[in-house]
Amino acid sequence: MKEDRVEQLTARLKxxxxxxxxxxxxxLRALVDSDGHPTAEQLxxxxxxxxxxxxxxxxxxFLDELERLDVVDHVHLGHGPGVYHFTDDVHNHxxxxxxxxxxxxxxxxxxxxxxxxxxxFGFEMEPRHFAVSGCCRDCAKKPTT
Amino acid sequence: MKEDRVEQLTARLKxxxxxxxxxxxxxLRALVDSDGHPTAEQLxxxxxxxxxxxxxxxxxxFLDELERLDVVDHVHLGHGPGVYHFTDDVHNHxxxxxxxxxxxxxxxxxxxxxxxxxxxFGFEMEPRHFAVSGCCRDCAKKPTT
DNA sequence: ATCTTTGCAAACTTTTTGCACCAAT
DNA sequence: ATTGGTGCAAAAAGTTTGCAAAGAT
Lengths: 145, 145
Prior knowledge:
Chain A has helices at residues 2-15, 22-33, 40-48, 56-68, 108-121, 137-141, and strands spanning 72-75, 83-86, 92-96, 102-105, 124-125, 131-135. By secondary structure, chain A is of the alpha+beta class. In chain A, the strands form two sheets. The first copy, chain A, has a three-stranded mixed β-sheet with strand order 4-3-6. In chain A, strands 1-2 form a two-stranded antiparallel ribbon. Chain A binds a DNA duplex through residues 14, 17-21, 23-24, 39-41, 53-58, 60-62, 64, 80-82.
């Protein structure tokens, strides 16, 4: 349940010494409700509908806090703003350079590479902060416009 | 020879209808000389030493032009400014989230993933615009500071 | 002479910060 | 009553743009 999710997270926040404000609850709601990869701006807009005074800086600050608690993570999908998602939603992103479409892929797809990087370079790839850019199936079909 | 490289590129530019100015030649020199991944800012600083009037916007515009000609490419290694490199210098980057170090890896390392993405998702990964973030060998050793 | 390219200043986008006020504990 | 969170405005940081002057062809 999405309600539960919000409650669970506010409890977590309280545990860590954080305070629960209506802004925060509303931002969490928006984050839980958005089944996608919202930007800070989109979250702000969403919450402003019911909470007009909310400022973008509050959203950024709260998202930072949530990142510190390892609850959310942000990814750069391309040149635009970063997008946020829950850390337990583990997957990776294929971003099309041409049309900007985002395809989620299960992390199993990249496990091979992950292992190789550890073996050969001692590098622990962070699969969450990782977007693969390229050209999606649809754009590959189209003649170069 | 690096001189040759600059000549070859100016010739290429001329072919495409571009004009060769002293700024452009100097930017190309700086790009050829830098054996790394210079940012637009670093290139500007470099060239300004001998060409003080140069403006950052000129560098950006010229780099855009070079990208259009598929001579250079830019990569986002992390949160900072983009870095530029010649497209024929094909390699990939491992960027450490903690210390920011950049490890170049041969593209052979990622060929497996590349093939998998084509087979499973019809997605043509663009290996040049692709940085893998994570934790490098050295930082993995250190206790979390 | 023409048409690019340049330098400049100013806008723009995304994110961060300083500060006084407000609100949760 | 504390202390942390908020709104605001302003500053960063990186990049782009409009424009008139300068320069390459």
